[in-house]
Fold this sequence. Notes:
By secondary structure, the chain is of the alpha+beta class. It has a domain at 59-148. It is built from four helices and five strands; from the N terminus they run H-H-H-E-E-E-E-E-H. It has helices at 2-18, 37-42, 44-55, 151-160, and strands at residues 56-72, 78-91, 103-113, 116-117, 134-149. The protein has a five-stranded antiparallel sheet with strand order 4-3-2-1-5. Strand 1 (56-72) and strand 2 (78-91) form a beta hairpin. Helix 3 runs antiparallel to helix 4 (151-160).
Amino acid sequence: MKKALVSGLLVLALSGALSGAETPPQEAEPAVTRHSTAHKILLYLPNRVFDVLDVVRARLRVGPGFAVGARVTKLTDVFLGSYASVFAGLPGPRPKPGIPWPVGVESRSGLAASVADATVTGDVADPAYSNAEVGMGFQLLLVGAEVGVDPLEIADFALGLMFVDLSGDDL
């Protein structure tokens, strides 16, 4: 085991010495996905359907909690409470490419008032509110609901008809 570790360190040291002087670490640039024309044509119809579904968030929740919240853009988000639930309905705007499944899990806990956001959400259970979304929601003991509309998603749909993906959420 020691020989393998020493050999590995020796190989790393030699590869660094052979490559010349130390180079400063480079920042990773965000990957830009470029789809082929065939890909865009093949997924044109599903992407437009998903763009229409992105406009509205309308879902019912079941799970323990007590919470109330409202938002008129991300800068005016007001939230107080805690819940962990499963939902069914329209999930709302997609923050990245993906299929907008009509069921899922979500949780949020804490307090938010405008840019002072002390809420905690899980990676998988994040409600993923968009920056321009207008909406409100509540959770009362075991049931809750959430509604919202995102005006930018209307523009994303309209531009998507001309193969322009404003939100960057096309598959």
